[in-house]
Amino acid sequence: MNTESYWSIFINASLVNNFVLAYFLGICPFLGVSGKMETATKMGGAVTFVMLISSICAYGIHALLVAIDAPFLQLISYIVVIASTVQLVEMFIKKMSPTLFRALGIFLPLITTNCAILGLALFQTNKAYSFSQSLVYSLGAGIGFTLALILMAGIREQLEFAEVPDVVKGTALTLLVAGILSLTFMGFSGLGT
Amino acid sequence: MTILIALLALGGLTMVLALMLIIANKKLYVYEDPRIDVVEGMLPHANCGACGYPGCRPFAEALVKGEMPPAKCSVSSEEGQKEIAQFLGVDAGSEEKKVARLACAGGNNVAINRARYEGISSCRAEALVSGGGKGCSWGCLSHGDCEKVCDFDAITMNAFGLPVVDEAKCTACGDCVEVCPKDLFSIHPVSHRLWVACKSLEAGDGVLEECEVGCTACGKCAMDAPSLITMINNLPVVDYSKKHQTQAPIQRCPTGAIVWLEENGEVIKGAEAKKIIRKGKLKMGES
């Protein structure tokens, strides 16, 4: 049993051990959809949502696997369960709230098999978080991801107007910015564990 | 034994999940008219918004519901519109071709720059710096924001830094209308042949000091065609609701600010319009 306080879990997940900028998980959406603030915000929302769901799933599945004494199936069953649950939720949203479905749109299925989602599920099991701790952890991770995405989108929108040398135009520049952003987030490392 | 547990556990798990998804697929099925997909496939996928809908799919939905005639899509060809009309069993409707037109003729050979602008190469950015460096506050700033925003390559900047619209390529989507900080573009049916290529609200010599082809608000065109043209805010305003087949109003224009646009893209100026023979760029502040 882990006795870490909720506040500490939240700060750790969102800032100190930011999934994107400290663990380097979920880099593809980070580089892919950070061009515009609007899509970045939506993607952040979708990721937070999927993280919450997968956290709940992972907690349940872990309990089940421990009960049948097969924890080595953890990885593969996490993938299957998270993917199908998100699929289910997507269908549910499509039926119940077309507006929300249109807002999340393509992002929901895109994020399902992302490494950040699986990473979250594995981390929370390794850290032996309780159910409520897991929820706070996934919420913090999701908000941290959104924050990184929004920061990146803001910088990239400003860069549109900058005169950039030809050699670093495009992806090269994005990677440079991502590196510097990651470097600044390393400054939080004194805060947590 | 361990293998058996693994097989059973994972097999059972996937079975449960599959069953869950199958049930959900049946229970939570959302009916969508299959014709929407087909019609969307027939549309040009330009997602330009010229039809007034956010993209091709909402337009396809409107087509299937019968809210819009297929001809409202100005990007698809006539055959394409007919195909959609046949598929849906409706009338294709007819829509006159519209194009974007520029209300400025002040290229850098006739209009003066009073200040040099150094910064981001964008009309919007220059316009923020007290309206830009051009002498005429209403004129084109020549950075080509419209050229960049045009999805159909219909706009090219000519040698004098003015955008030229290729009427064949223009789909009247209105992107250039929106992007121009000086509001120089507007969408007009091609049959509107009489065109005032100036937006200057100044009158008299004040205009000529900044631009040789500006409208001086002399009012001769309005006098020659009183029912068609009225002077409002020092600019002639053509009443396009009336038929205009004659080139008479442009004949006495001293600067050639009001022009007749031929179908082949030729711009005809009046007989009394001052001839512009200068080919080079005007120097800063020179008139």
Task: Explain what this protein looks like in three dimensions.
With 193 residues, chain A is an all-alpha fold. Chain A has one domain (6-184). Chain A contains 9 helices and no strands. The longest helix of chain A has 31 residues, at 37-67. Chain A is globular, with a radius of gyration of 18 Å. Chain B is an alpha+beta fold and 287 residues long. Chain B has 2 domains: 34-88, Electron transport complex subunit B, putative Fe-S cluster (3-methyladenine DNA Glycosylase II, Chain A, domain 3, Orthogonal Bundle); 98-268, Alpha-Beta Plaits (2-Layer Sandwich), CATH 3.30.70. Chain B has helices at 2-27, 34-42, 56-65, 78-88, 123-128, 145-149, 175-179, 205-210, 220-224, and strands at residues 98-102, 155-157, 163-165, 185-189, 194-196, 229-232, 235-238, 258-261, 267-268. The chains are: A mainly alpha (193), B alpha+beta (287). Chain A binds chain B through residues 65, 68-70, 72-73, 76-77, 80-81, 84, 87-88, 91-92, 94-95, 98, 161, 163, and chain B through 2, 5-6, 9-10, 13-14, 17-18, 20-21, 24-25, 28-30, 120, 122, 125.
Brief account:
The complex is a heterodimer of chains A (193) and B (287). Chain A has helices spanning 6-16, 27-32, 37-67, 74-96, 98-104, 107-112, 115-126, 131-159, 171-185.
Present the secondary structure layout.
The complex is a heterodimer of chains A (193) and B (287).
Chain A: H1 6-16, H2 27-32, H3 37-67, H4 74-96, H5 98-104, H6 107-112, H7 115-126, H8 131-159, H9 171-185
Chain B: H1 2-27, H2 34-42, H3 56-65, H4 78-88, E1 98-102, H5 123-128, H6 145-149, E2 155-157, E3 163-165, H7 175-179, E4 185-189, E5 194-196, H8 205-210, H9 220-224, E6 229-232, E7 235-238, E8 258-261, E9 267-268
Antiparallel strand pairs in B: 1-4, 2-3, 5-8, 6-7, 8-9
Helix pairs in contact in B: 2-3
Number of helices of chain B: 9
Class by helix and strand content of chain B? alpha+beta
Oligomeric composition of the shown chains: heterodimer
What is the CATH class name of the largest domain in chain B?
Alpha Beta
Q: What is the count of distinct domains of chain A?
A: 1
Q: Kindly name the structural category of chain A.
A: mainly alpha
Main-sheet strand order of chain B equals 5-8-9
- Let me know the largest β-sheet of chain A: none
Tell me, what's the shape of chain B? elongated
| Unreliable runs of chain B | none
H-E order of chain A: HHHHHHHHH
Task: List how many beta strands of chain A DSSP finds.
Answer: 0
Mean pLDDT of chain B: 87
